[in-house]
Specification:
386 residues; three-stranded antiparallel β-sheet; 71% helix; binds protoporphyrin IX containing FE
């Protein structure tokens, strides 16, 4: 074997050895790279397995729920639908945990009744103020002669003023409870409003029944004066002479405007009183006998209470706005009207101007008192009038 052949073989084996080393090194690199890729891939993929299994599981649970639902969910679903169950608390409807109508009632009370209707009172007050400022006051056309006519007895006046004062107190406390939170917290602060609201609630509950008795007596005593007659239509046609200073439409003991006020009180006022009593009775522990079920709103059920509350609040606000008109006419609006309800006597001039038919009857019957400026004459008048 010559030396050149030996060299070639040695070179070949050295090259092969080198290639082998290079191949092994590359494989090691590939293994290292794929290991890193695999580690990163698994680090991302493994946590996803729990989500996937949860998703697949909940699908399966949902499918299963079609067949058998969770009893606890069923229970609360029924409670929300207003189904009654059992509760250890005794009392009407205490087994009904959630009453669906409650939401509707709250939306109505906190919505239109609390936010829109009270503007009616402010609007009427504004109109009366403007009317007065632009010469609305009805003065007496003739100077007073001193002659007087008895118009209201002591019991009429007592009932009127108890009803009027309790009405004003009920209006103030009622409005405080309805919209006081927005109106009064800026004035009284939270603590101040809390005590006022507490007082308002108690005062409203006590004065309500007093007012209801007053209204009932007024209706019984005065219904006879308030049936409509032919002259009332003419009176209404001329708007009670409100817009003409010189002419005064004829009227009997009560004019058509007063009669309308009376009938509003005998209808809407009675509903306000009934609904108020329906709400207050359970607070005093008053349970009505079964025959009383023929009356509306008195069952004490939540649905009845909610209806009663909406009617009571809505009508009371409208009524308060109308009462402002009556109060204005009875005080600043008409010269001489207030003294009738204060002392019982009106001047002959006032009677002839506003209630001519009644005044003529009283004059014919000799019921005019010549001078009531001293107490002695007033006493004589009492005797004269029987
Ligand atoms: C401060 C408030 C009030 C004043 C100043 C006032 C004034 C008067 C006056 C002067 C009269 C007599 C009218 C006349 O002789 O023709 C009268 C009658 C009357 N008042 Fe009042 N009043 C007030 C509040 C109330 C309230 C709140 C009510 C009812 C809730 C009421 C119901 C009546 C009724 C029903 C009459 C008789 C009218 C008729 O029978 O048609 N008053 N008022």
């Amino acid at each position: 074997m010559d030396t050149s052949t030996v060299d070639i073989q040695a070179v070949k084996s050295a090259v092969e050895q080198h290639n082998d080393v290079v191949r092994r090194r590359r494989r090691k690199h590939r293994i290292a790279i794929w290991s890193v890729v695999a580690i990163i891939g698994l680090a991302i993929a493994l946590p996803m397995i729990s989500y996937t299994s949860h998703w697949v599981g909940s699908e399966a649970i949902a499918q299963e729920a079609g067949a058998t639902t969770n009893p606890r969910s069923n229970y609360w679903r029924a409670v929300k639908e207003g189904v009654s169950g059992y509760s250890a608390v005794s009392g009407q409807e205490s087994n009904v945990l959630i009453q669906l109508n409650g939401t509707g009632w709250q939306q109505m009370r906190d919505g239109p009744i609390a936010t829109k209707l009270p503007w009616l009172i402010a609007g009427v007050a504004g109109i009366l103020l403007l009317f007065h400022l632009f010469g609305g006051r009805q003065k007496l056309d003739k100077p007073r002669s001193g002659r007087k006519i008895k118009r209201w007895g002591w019991f009429d006046r007592l009932v009127h003023w108890i009803t009027a004062i309790s009405f004003i107190a009920l209006a103030v406390t009622g409005i405080s409870m309805l919209i006081g939170k927005n109106l009064l917290i800026p004035l009284l602060g939270k603590a101040g409003f809390a005590s006022w609201a507490q007082f308002s609630l108690q005062a409203h509950n006590v004065l309500g029944p007093v007012f209801a008795v007053g209204i009932t007596l007024m209706i019984i005593m005065w219904i006879w004066y308030n049936f409509p007659t032919r002259v009332d239509f003419a009176w209404l046609k001329s708007a009670g002479g409100m817009f003409s200073k010189d002419s005064h439409p004829s009227a009997g003991r009560m004019n058509a405007g007063e009669k309308i006020w009376f009938w509003l009180l005998a209808t809407g006022g009675v509903v306000v009183c009934l609904t108020g009593l329906a709400m207050v009775a359970p607070i005093y522990g008053i349970v009505l006998p079964p025959w009383a079920d023929i009356l509306p709103w008195v069952s004490g059920s939540r649905a009845d209470m909610q209806q009663a509350n909406l009617l009571h609040g809505g009508l009371a606000i409208v009524w308060t706005a109308i009462a402002l008109g009556h109060i204005y006419i009875g005080t600043a609006g008409t010269e001489g009207a207030f003294e009738g309800m204060a002392s019982g006597y009106v001047s002959e001039e006032w009677a002839l101007q506003h209630h001519d038919l009644w005044a003529h009857k009283m004059i014919e019957k000799g019921k005019v008192i010549e001078s009531s400026e001293n107490a002695g004459t007033a006493a004589a008048a009492q005797t004269a009038n029987g």
